[in-house]
Write a structure and sequence with these properties.
338 residues, 57% strand, single chain, 1 helix, 21 strands, alpha+beta, lipopolysaccharide transport protein A fold
């Protein structure tokens, strides 16, 4: 009986040993397969997520993303519930923790009160993920909605100030009007005030405005200012201008457009003006060139000197482009030829 019990005990041990060797390892192997499969599925899911992110072009501008490259980028940045800028780029590349993104083939829309005010394009650019500042380089063109175009090597947009700046050379083309070509300007140091819809060229301004009948304005000034709302142009500081054999000098000059006719209708110079042509010299506080009526109006202690004769009055008007002179309340000082 004892011997029989020993045999049963030995048989049970053998069965237990077989279970440990065969059944339990098979269970372990099965569990390992599940873990491997789960890891593969997770990797595939992450890959698809990244691919989808690249197609949808949603970049986390907080700078917390892992290293990656994306195509077809579209970003919108807002301030206080209003759109600040909207960016489109052919491709973007960023590094985790770097805080910036590099862009290729960039186009940025700058908004003012939910309306596009300016559009800038360029070959490449960067975004500062923290400040939301932008830099665009290479064949950069900044356009206002009313038709002004500014070409610069680069621009930088400061999000906190809502300003576009370029310290480099600028070539500006104004909107065309009924005379044909718009104002063509060269200068340095562009500043665009997005909230005010205002564009400034702050140094070394030279400009040409073609007119009808082969005439043109040539302008030299320290600076110039343009509006994104209308075609008005202002030249500031040591303004020197020539038009139809006439030379004008003053601290400030404005080109004023007839909005309905889309035509440069008058030029106003103020702050103490000097005007001269082949046989006359005139001074006054202000001069208005009425281009449609072809007359020039001098106000503010106006004085004309011609052939050593001096004429002054309350108002002096050059008619027919300066061929005739009309004086209101004339005061004349004639040379004594005896």
């Amino acid at each position: 009986m004892a011997k029989f019990k020993n045999l049963i005990f030995v048989a049970l041990l053998v069965l237990l040993f077989v279970e440990v060797l065969i059944v339990f390892p098979n269970k372990l192997e099965h569990d390992d397969d599940k873990d491997v499969q789960a890891r593969i599925e997770l990797q595939e899911k992450r890959k698809k997520e990244l691919e989808a992110a690249g197609k949808d072009a949603n970049i986390d501008t907080s700078g917390n993303m892992a290293d990656q490259k994306m195509e077809g980028v579209h970003l919108v940045e807002s301030q206080q519930g209003n759109r600040d800028w909207e960016l489109f780029s052919k491709a973007a590349e960023g590094s985790q923790g770097s805080g910036s993104w590099k862009l290729q083939q960039v186009r940025v829309l700058f908004y003012n009160k939910e309306k596009v005010e300016f559009t800038a394009t360029g070959d490449e650019g960067t975004i500062d993920a923290k400040s939301k500042d932008l830099t665009i380089k290479g064949n950069v063109t900044t356009r206002s909605e009313n038709g002004y175009s500014f070409k610069t090597p680069s621009i930088h947009y400061y999000s906190s100030k809502r300003q576009i700046e370029s310290p480099e050379d600028v070539i500006m083309e104004g909107p065309r009007d009924k005379t044909g070509a718009g104002l063509l300007l060269k200068g340095r140091r562009m500043l665009v005030l997005v909230d005010q819809s205002k564009m400034l060229i702050q140094e070394k301004v030279t400009a040409v405005k073609p007119m009808q009948e082969g005439k043109k304005f040539d302008v030299i000034a320290d600076g110039a200012e343009f509006s994104g709302k209308n075609n008005t142009a202002r030249f500031l500081g040591n303004v020197r201008m020539s038009y139809d054999n006439m030379r004008l000098e003053g601290p400030e000059a404005s080109f004023l457009y007839n909005t309905g006719a889309n035509l440069l209708s008058s030029v106003a110079i103020k702050g103490g003006v000097k005007v001269s042509d082949a046989d006359k010299f005139a001074t006054s506080e202000t001069v208005n060139l009425d281009l449609l009526a072809n007359k020039y109006i001098f106000k503010g202690r106006p004085k004309v000197i011609q052939n050593n004769d001096e004429i002054s009055g309350e108002e002096i008007i050059f008619l027919e482009g300066g061929k005739k002179v009309k004086v209101e309340k004339v005061r004349a000082k004639m040379e004594n030829k005896e």
